[in-house]
Amino acid sequence: MRDWRVAVLMVVVIIVLLRLDATAQAGCDTALPTLYQQVSPAVVFISAVSVASMHPGERVGTVIGSGVLMDKEGLILTNSHVVFGRRAISVTLDNGYTTPAKVLGTDPILDVAVLRIPVPEAGLPQATLGDSDALQVGEEVIAIGNPMGLEQTLTRGVISGIDRLLWEFPLNLMLPLIQTDAAINPGNSGGPLVNRCGEVVGLTSALLADAKNIGFAIPINVVKQVLPQLVQQGRVMRPWLGVSGKVIGKEVQDLLKLPLVDGFLVETIEPGSPAAKAGLHEGELLIAVSGEEFLFGGDIIMAANGKELDDTEKFTQFVRTLKVGDTVRLTLYHDGTTRQVEFTLPERPILPGDVPPDGRRALAPLGHRRAPLQRQR
User: Domain segments of the chain: what residues?
Assistant: First the structure.
């Protein structure tokens, strides 16, 4: 009986050890010096000339950032705000080799850009792109880049949050970001956020001003989705509706005691957009409800293409299915009356607000609390 118990105990121990070993292999636990040696050769230093024609006293400046080689043919991923509208863009490799770079495509909204450099005789290293959907809060990551111009610097941290929505974008353009406490500084932008397997899981993009170690990265899976358009077309093609606002329901209506309806409250309308040309009304009266601000007085979109928009998820799903050239029918409520409008969606242009001056943009990541978030060069 005793031998039987010992045998069972040994089997249990072996099974537990095998599971732990499999878990360790799945999660990876590469030593940090090894990770650095593996990834850093594919991290590049980017320098560009910025010309600000609207500021005669400071017309010309230098912008620095980081990037990561994604293949051996010279394709480099970086942030759009590092290279968009810049001149004389050059890339310096880990071995010190410097070469001019050509911009293949940029998207200021997602803050992603693709560059190409000529392949030197010695060839090029290549980073491995991972799966950002597999990230978990608490997972250890490193950022490699050129903060403050200090080349090839490694900082270490963890994933502090995933699918972090920052209110910089209209609802239909929101980007779920990776939050990390790995130190990110000016010059890190466009560099890789790397997991312990040595895979690039994000592009470091921004940090929260006046905060301690709150940085953000663009999920690499988002980059993969737009990469073909950036390389082939030079841009990401999006349909243009031209409204931003919030979904209101019965709770808000009950608090305000106003004769409203469920739907998407139009707060602002982009000038020249299809919504503006169709005569939609934007909000005029600012009211705070339970700490959240609403701009009332505009149209409420009750339904789109016959489907009700009475919650945020329905509106988000609606705009995600839209394509350039689609015809949209909106049922609108305003001042006690309903009406319908119909229009065809053009391609959304790059708007002035998409390109922050000097690489900086104010965000409200915590709802009504306004905190500036700086996109680092």
Answer: 42-116, 128-237+353-375, 243-344
DSSP annotation string for 206-263? EEETTSSS-EEEEEHHHHHHHHHHHHHHSS---B---EEEEEE-HHHHHHHT----SE
User: pTM for this structure?
Assistant: 0.81
What is the distance between the alpha carbons of residues 346 and 325, in angstroms, rounded to a whole number? 6
CB 134 within 8 A of CB 145: no
Give CA torsion, residues 110, 113, 114, 116, to 10 deg. 180
DSSP string, 1-54: -HHHHHHHHHHHHHHHHHHHHHHHHHH----HHHHHHHHGGGEEEEEEEEE-TT
Residues with a known catalytic role: 81, 111, 189
User: In which residue ranges of the chain is pLDDT below 70?
Assistant: 1-27, 53-59, 166-174, 253-259, 356-377
Residue with tokens 């910089």: 168
Q: Express each pLDDT in 258-281 by its tens digit.
A: 667 889 999 999 999 999 999 999
Classify domain 128-237+353-375 by CATH architecture: Beta Barrel (2.40)
Query: 42-116 with 243-344: one CATH topology?
Result: no
